[in-house]
Write a structure and sequence with these properties.
By secondary structure, the protein is α+β, with helices and mostly antiparallel strands. Helices cover about 35% and strands about 15% of the residues. The chain has one domain: Malate/L-lactate/L-sulpholactate dehydrogenase, NADPH binding domain (Ribosomal Protein S8, Chain: A, domain 1), CATH 3.30.1370.60.
């Protein structure tokens, strides 16, 4: 869900989503990405910002190895030759050839959707992949075709084992989306760690300490330092401690590693090359609702459930109870009209990248206040 943990009055400069999408497309093309693929990659990134998942949006473009630096170093292939390693009417196994993750994975999910539409359900794995942005984007693609969708990705280890000190799994996100009759889908997109790694990036940019239960130092002690990962620290599993059931997040993280890494042929992220390679495996699934029940009845039942949950009285300090997907739709409604807020550091990095690539960064639509 689109929550950063750093709530407060929005004072940042805002930028038009179409302007950011155009800028991102132009930057990708400057690295040799074909125009149609660049449009796909830009859409995935900017959609994350529109729904409030700032940890996986345009902020990654100038510095993350899966984006501009990856193109510059050769880690990311702008024109991959995707190889179909195995295929059946309900499945496919791809080698992504090190291609830009958002593009390869959008195509993989599209193939998954096509197979599911024809055969009822389908799964697609990608090996030799790169960072694919927000997992929820791909799961949500299925909803647009009246399907249920899922997406997962394994990540090199940055999280502790439950009760241990060693890094053994990554943020390893799980996403699922399902249609609801009122048009606002159920949309779950979560890391299997206590928090996504990008949330530490946001805290670092905003100069804010980490909440209890997010990360530990190399000795396994709680750390509020947003840069603790650079000092041999680690994220905690979802659940944070053994007392609060960190074995659940740990187990889910390993499940994602199995489905995305081992099953795809990449192997466990535990043994992935360290450093600047960022090889990742991905897993996608989609299935038709009518294999199990009437689609209209399903969507109506989903709305009944969602509405009942939204009527649950909130605890003190919480405005209202929501279901996964509500915060994203609220963010999209606001940011589509009022613009996408960006941190000062991100703006500076994007301006510098634009100057380097001959693509001017757009002006803000709302100046905000200095942070």
């Amino acid at each position: 869900m689109a929550w950063t943990g750093f709530d407060g009055p929005e004072t940042r400069q805002r930028f038009d989503a179409d302007d950011l999408r155009g800028f991102t497309t132009a930057v990708l093309q400057s690295y040799g990405v074909p125009a149609d693929d660049a449009n796909i990659g830009a859409d995935v990134l900017i959609d994350a910002d529109l729904v409030g998942i700032e940890s996986h949006g345009i902020a990654h473009l100038p510095w993350h190895i899966g984006y501009a630096p990856g193109f510059e170093s050769g880690v990311v292939n702008p024109t991959p030759e995707i190889k179909v390693l195995r295929e059946s009417p309900v499945s496919a196994a791809w080698d992504g050839d090190g291609g830009f993750g958002t593009i390869v994975c959008q195509k993989a999910m599209s193939t998954c959707i096509d197979k599911a539409t024809t055969s009822g359900m389908a799964m697609v794995t990608v090996r030799n992949g790169r960072h694919f942005g927000a997992a929820g984007y791909y799961a949500h693609m299925a909803v647009e075709h009246d399907l249920i969708g899922m997406a997962m990705c394994n990540v090199p280890p940055i999280a502790m084992a439950a009760g241990g000190k060693g890094r053994v799994f990554g943020t390893n996100p799980i996403a699922m989306a399902a249609p609801i009759s009122d048009g606002t889908p159920f949309r779950l997109d979560i890391a299997t760690t206590a928090v996504a790694g990008g949330k530490l990036e946001i805290a670092g940019r905003q100069g804010k300490p980490l909440p209890q239960g997010w990360a530990v130092d190399e000795d396994g002690s709680h750390s509020d330092d947003p840069f603790v990962m650079r000092k041999n620290g680690a994220l905690l599993p979802l659940g944070s401690t053994l007392t609060t059931s960190s074995h659940k997040g740990y187990g889910l993280g390993l499940m994602v590693d199995i489905m995305s890494g081992v099953l795809s042929g990449d192997g466990s992220g535990l043994f992935a090359p360290r450093g600047q390679n960022l090889i990742q495996g991905q897993w996608f699934a989609a299935w038709r609702i009518d294999l199990f029940c009437d689609p209209d009845e399903f969507k109506s039942s989903m709305k009944e459930m969602a509405d009942a949950i939204r009527e649950v009285p909130p605890v003190d300090g919480v405005e209202r109870v929501v279901i996964p997907g509500d915060p994203e739709e609220i963010a999209r409604a606001d940011r589509s009209v009022n613009g996408i807020p960006l941190d000062d550091e991100t703006i500076e990095q994007l301006i510098a990248l634009g100057e380097q690539r001959g693509t001017p960064f757009p002006a803000p639509v709302h100046e905000g206040a200095s942070s």
